[in-house]
Amino acid sequence: MVFLVGALPTLALATTAMELDTRESGQPGRASVAVQDGRMRIEQGAGWMLYDSSKNSVFVVEPQRRSYLELNQEEMRRYGKQLGAARAMVDEQLKGLLPEQRAAIEKMMGGETRGQPLLFQSTGKRREVAGHACTQGRLTRFNTKDRQYKVEENVCLAAPKDIGMSEADYATVRKLYALMHEMQELGAPGILPDFSEIDGVPLEVSNPNGDFQRLKSVTHADLPAEKFTVPADYTREDVVQALKRYQQ
Which of 32, 122, 195, 221 is 20 to 30 Å from the Cα of 152, by its Cα? Predict the structure, then answer.
């Protein structure tokens, strides 16, 4: 869960940099997101990610391994093709199991919501996060077993112009949202959230498990260009092999 933004309700500026408070699996933490010149840098934990809108690619950078992945439509289609073949094999094997065994395994694989589109519903309720106004809403997905929509994320959205984000920077954010949607449609792991259904920038994102990311502070000073590039001496890894490692 990333892309939480809050800012000054003044002129739109060239850079938006955010510091975030987080909680994941009960553990508190910090994250940061910066948008500048068609690129986004996202930091949380030991590694970081870079989105380059000119290439429409996400770079997952691992400083400890001095390596990176480049995730784009072409690579995700290659990964999705292999994943689809593996799922077809598993589905065939499930046919020989007892109904309760099959249901348990399908639940672990996300079978109750797999393939269902995300929908955004605004509650219309206004509140403030870190002193900035936003409108509450939720992202839901249809659960085929219960025949009802399940809340996946609660969000509080601000309009870009109201938080000082330029049209160009918001266009970068929207392009990343669209790419994340395409990747998840192809079955890629949720490295970044699919926010393609929302129109605005979240100041807060939370889920029913109690995890959240919440705006703490925001600045608009230009950042060094090298923060938005992958170090030249880092090695590019194969996407399919690396994503298999992440899923283990």
Answer: 32
Which CATH number goes with the domain that contains 80?
Answer: 2.50.20.10
CA dihedral sign, ordered 241, 242, 247, 248: positive
Tokens describing residue 160: 């870009």
Element spanning 111, H or E? none
Residues in the chain: 248
Range of the domain at 35: 15-85+112-247
The model's pLDDT over 150-190, given as tens digits with 9 standing for 90+, comes to: 888 999 999 888 788 899 999 999 999 999 888 877 766 55
**Tokens coding 186:** 């192809």
| Non-local CB neighbours of 80 within 8 Å, separated by 6+ positions | 186, 187, 188
What are the structure tokens assigned to 236, written together? Answer: 């590019």
Say how far apart CA 153 and CA 230 lie, in whole Å. Answer: 30
User: Are 62 and 68 spatial neighbours (Cβ–Cβ below 8 Å)?
Assistant: yes
Contact 44, 29 (CB under 8 A): yes
